Amino acid sequence: MLASAGMRVALMIEGQEGVTWDHWCALADACEEHGVETLFRSDHYISQADESANVAHDAWTTIAALAARTTTLRFGTLVSPATFRAPALLANAVATADHVSGGRIELGLGAGWMEREHRAFGFPFPETPVRVEMFAEQLEIVHRLWTEERVDFRGRYYTLEDAPGLPKPVQRPHPPILVGGSGKRGTVEPALRFADEYNTPFVTPEEAAAIRPRVAPLRFSVMTGCIIGSTHDEALDRAHELYGRRPRDEAFDDWLAAYAQRALFGSVDEVATRLHEYEQAGCDRVMLQHLQHTDLEPVRLIGRELSASSRRS
Questions:
Q1: Total tally of structural domains belonging to the chain
Q2: CA distances from 118 to 18, 48, 104, 112, 115 (A)
Q3: Does 4 have pLDDT greater than 80?
Q4: Could you give the angle at which helices 185-194 and 128-147 cross, rounded to 10 degrees?
Q5: Distance between CA atoms of 133 and 285, rounded to whole angstroms?
Q6: 262 in a structural domain
């Protein structure tokens, strides 16, 4: 069973987990070679697995650089925390990347959650309700800077005085804006006003189906893990490799069973069957988190087998 034409798939890379510039170039090249439509990356400044060893390059600098050396691949963040950048800086950075790419950029925006990186590098990390309010103001400001000639804004956290809405992005009316959240009011209501897509991470198809009605008429997507192989045994080998990267309390079989409940695991056909469940739940797109970023074979399978089959069906 293959995903239908209504279900799009994209690649998602956790950029803070030791993805070097050479790795990024290899990933982008593989995406273009094998027909992956969009490469998303996380926006973090510190590794969760090994912060002393794993490099975490800046998301928007990396995206702009990759955009300059590619021709068809789209790029985006899942998601940029509102705590990292002033909204006008973010609007300019993303619009600049949109010019560099010739219109191949998407902005994912959220409230931020990883306290450790904020404490480490001096980013403010207020309580969750405050971060959500900051996100809502930031989303409105970015949208208005991209769509209005001049912007005045006086909020609780940000103030703009007669700001010129420049540079305008290449994409009109603006690059697609994705809001990341769990379907709660604090992210849903601003998204309905200013975003194009709502994205929820690591939910089952049943959980996705419960969120879908709350975000109509936006596009709806899910980001979730993916361990894929051309055969089930090949996927199992990749699962063993990922499991062995760090000490774990649970046995392999227990770990994999828990992983497969909220992620995609198996052969191409098995993953496609699972994708169909997300499509039936109302998802327009699934971003497949690929944690073994030096292994490019899954990129080929996602592009050649999943994405291409989706476009053909």
A1: 1
A2: 19, 13, 29, 9, 5
A3: no
A4: 0
A5: 27
A6: yes
Q: Quick check: is 2 in a domain?
A: no
The CB-side HSE value for 148 (13 A sphere, CA atoms) comes to 13
In angstroms, the CA 118 to CA 76 distance is: 22
pLDDT tens readout for residues 233-255:
999 999 999 999 989 999 999 99
Report residue 156 as tokens: 């609780």
Residue 201 near residue 222, CB atoms below 8 Å: yes
Q: How far is CA 227 from CA 174, 217, 221, in A?
A: 34, 31, 19
Compute CA distances 42 → 126, 170, 188, 269, 298, whole Å: 21, 23, 20, 27, 19
- Which DSSP category does 227 fall into? E
pLDDT over 70 (residue 309) = no
CATH code for position 62: 3.20.20.30
Residue pair 157/131 in contact by the 8 Å Cβ criterion:
no
99 occurs within a structural domain: yes
Mean pLDDT, residues 32-50? 97
Within-domain flag for 40: yes
Which two tokens mark 52?
A: 């002393």
CB 281 within 8 A of CB 212: yes
pTM above 0.85, yes or no: yes
* Full domain range(s) for residue 36: 8-312
